[in-house]
Amino acid sequence: MPDRGDTRVGAALIASAVGLALAALPLFLAHPAALAGLWLAWVPFGLAAGWWLGTRTPGELLRDAVVLGLLWTAALLSFALLLAWPLQRLQQAPSLGGVLALGAACGLGLFAFWRTWPATGRALRTGGSLAELRVAARHGAGLAWRGFGVALALAGALLPVLLLAWPGLVEGAARDWLLPAGIVAVATMPLLAAWLGEPPEVAETVGLLPVTTARAYGGETMAVVEDEADAGLSLESRLYLAARLGRIEQALDLLEAGADPHALPPPGGRDQRTLAMLAAVHVDLRLLRALIAAGVDLNLAHAGLTPLLAATRDSWHGRVEAVMTLLANGADPRVVDADGNTPLHHAARSTDPGVAALLLDAGAALDAVNHEGLSPLGVACAAGNWRLAKFLIERGAHNEPAGGQPVLLAAAGGDDDPAGVNLLLRHKARVDARDQRGRTALLVACRADNAEIVAALLAAGADRNAHDDEGFTPLLAASAAGSLAALRVLIPTQPDPGAVDAAGRNALALLMQARQADPEIVPLLLRLGVDPGQRDRDGRRPLDLAVAAGRWRLVRALDPLHPLPSSLLDESEDALDEPEQSPESLLRDALIARRFDEAARMLPLAPPEAASALLPVFADECDLDLFDWLLRHGVDPERPLPGGGDGVAFRLLARGRHAAPALRRLLARGVGIGGRGGLARFLAACAGDRSHAGEHEALALDLLARGADPFGKNPAGDPPLALALRLGWSRLALALLATGADPNQRDARGLSPLHLACARGDAALVKALVRHGASPEARSPDGQTPLGLALASGRRELAHWLEWRQWRLPGRPLQPADLPAAAMVGDRDAVERLLELGLPIDAVDVQGCSALLRAAGGGHAALVELLLARGADVALSACTGATPLSAAVSMRHPQIVERLLVAGAAVDQALPGGITPLMVAAALGLDDMCRRLLAGGADIAAQDGQGHGALHCAAIQAFQSRDRDRVVRLFDLLLRAGAGADAPAQGGLTPLLLVLGARAEPGSSCDEDTVLAALERLLAENVALDVQERRGFGPLHLACLHGLRRVVRRLLRAGADPGLRDTLNRTPHDIAVLRGFVDVAAEFEPARGQVSLARFLREPPRE
């Protein structure tokens, strides 16, 4: 399937090409009718504009083309009519009046285009029918500034066409330049107008519209948006906007223009009401009827609502007509919203029973229960809507709906109006009915301090000692809520004074913890007989709770003889309940005054977290005795403090040196100092005070060792490493790097650690940062690199560590394998610096190669000299067994070979398989290299695991070589050095057999002259000609196998036996025939007159 973007681009290209062809007609045809091409070109260019912007779809192409043509023609004709008279006057008799008239006509036309710009933008961007464009022009955004740009673009395309088409107006050279300008205008102005015609978002449009106040139905005030939303919006978006704003006429017009009545609101919008829901809340129901006529589903639930739920909720007076319309057209009165409320639940809050009556007549469930357990009657009672409650009771609503809460509890927990309670009691409501939590109406009324309802319930016989599931009785509930009025009514009925809740608290204990506790309640409870000395399950008496809460007036009312804090002895009665007189504030005051006896009494009363919060208060040097006193008396320094949950140590870190003694005391106690950014906070605090820097650095190191965060930033955004560098604490910086701190993490000013180290001129820190992976190429916000800073300050010793020209730093902490990597590219400076940075000289890479091996193999003599001078191990071998010497030999670097030999490299150090460097040189045909190795003491008699010596290797290479002279020199060198000419290797292979290709595939290409030269040198050593390898092949067999005719002749002349047979009983002649070398086979028979063509096909022509 082709991509939609590709389809649009293709359509835009085709339309643009058609438009250019039409617009260019006047350039090629001199007839005046050719100007019609400029008129017609507007249509394809207008279509292309929407495709270029990606707003138009290929559908309805013909309709959009016709509409664009009609719009363009109408604009052209109207503009021509406006300009006709002024242009004619100016042609006949130029005058100021004619110019003014022409300007006025242009302005009037421009204003008309401006007023209708939404239709133009819609036609160019997305297209549409004439009816849709009419609605867009009628309800558009009016004289918006972007619309003025659209009008200018339209006028800019029209004017050149009119001027060119006007008879006798533009002639000669002016016409020659005006025609191309007109083509460009017609081609570009549609795209500009389409781009400027983009509609704003709905929310943006509504948010920017001016708001005035107007009178609404019922005399209330409401906000009315005066201007309309942008006409460039889709029909559905404008329909929703009109429905929300109550513009019923506009909404009906949009429905008539084709807007989808079933469209849902945008998923991300704040208002998720559907069109039917919006229409149902308006007084004017025409839109609702139109939607019903269009077939809208009135029971479609969206965002937990249906139109009927929307019509019944949020209306104090009720919407009887809307509800009637919805019910008459099939709306379901039994639907529920997200909270379980039915339309009848919402109607229960309305003052008009008419809505509830309609719902009940339509089949609404009278006793349906919502998620809170309330029936519609319970909702009416909770809202104090007794009129509707009476109506529902008369219609048969139950006082205790199945699975729900008794309505009497809802009536008791609202306003203190006994009318509803009495109404329910008259209709047989049980006075001691309980809800799911075991609460009665009396308990609810006592907690709400509804004294009149309490009196009514008690008069009706309510149980004054009934308790709920948590053990609360009416007395306990009233005490916990501090309900003085309810207690004055309840206590004369003599409720049980010994009642306690599930936590063992009696009425006095609950009063001490009440949010609002009047001291007048205390004597009421004491006279009732509540025990002031009773302890709860935590062992606390009411007096203890009051003291702990700092409620001294309650303390005095409960026990007048209880000693008060000395700071309150001279205070007035009103000062006893001041917030600062809590136990923690009294503890702080006692400590400040050094009244340690009083502080010891207050400490157990203060909350533990409040006592811990005093430790930072007394952390300065002048208050360390108080700090120590708190620690000695068991205050926990690791308890999270109020206001963030930090521990004491973490809070002290932000105070720097001022809290250093306290921090040392905490560290001595083993207090943890973890927490994100803790070390950075301490360093930032120390940055403002450089005194005693060494002592503070030692403390910072101790903090780091004890677990302070080495990575987290302080609130300003500076990491610990940057702060340590700024302070010049090199020991801490090195410790942070060793811990794993990021050497490239920037501070709040965008500077990397290398920038800070270079700014300080600290070469040791620069080296450490580079060693741990800092990047010298990092740029500061002003574009400077660390190298630039070093050079600008004239610090060449710093630049030495920052400039890596050949081998580049890897962007991570340096590893031992980086040394062989730098040696591989031959960067002597990099290797030298890496060695100075502490990388081991004999470090190896993943292949086991050392830097010396890499340098020797790469032929980097100066680097080899450096490494040898630094003590590199010349015998260290790689995973493959290669040594620096064998690498230099195999890569043909004789000078490095000599240097390694001088440095003590073992000349016969064997590779895997017993291969010596001499064998490697011989196998490569390097006679000069062999000479140097022999001069260095190489053993000519050494053999590998298969019995091959250096001469065997040279013989194998000779068969493949085409350098005759090199082969001869190599054989002479090895034979003179004592190599055995007839020494057999594994399988009986002698140098003679190897020279003749015993290890090569049959018919392998070789240079016969080179083979002959090596053969001659071996024959000169009187080698045996009757030798045979494991297949039984002798010298003649091998020569026949490879088709070496001249070699056969030479061997026959030397006395080789032509009748020698192999293990398959074949003679050399048989081998030659089998291989097809007839000319070679002929050497074993009498001479013939005809020469075989095989020779010419086998051997390349000689020059």
UniProtKB/TrEMBL annotation:
Record keywords, A-Z: ANK repeat, Membrane, Repeat, Transmembrane, Transmembrane helix
SMART domains recorded: ANK
Extent of the ANK repeats: 339-371, 372-397, 402-436, 437-469, 716-748, 749-781, 847-879, 880-908, 913-945, 1031-1063
InterPro entries: Ankyrin_rpt, Ankyrin_rpt-contain_sf, Multifunctional_ANK_Repeat
Pfam families according to UniProt: Ank (PF00023), Ank_2 (PF12796), Ank_5 (PF13857)
Domain of life: Bacteria
Membrane-traversing stretches: 12-29, 36-53, 65-84, 96-114, 143-165, 177-196
Record-linked Gene3D superfamilies: Ankyrin repeat-containing domain (1.25.40.20)
Designated name of the protein: Ankyrin repeat domain-containing protein
Organism: Rehaibacterium terrae
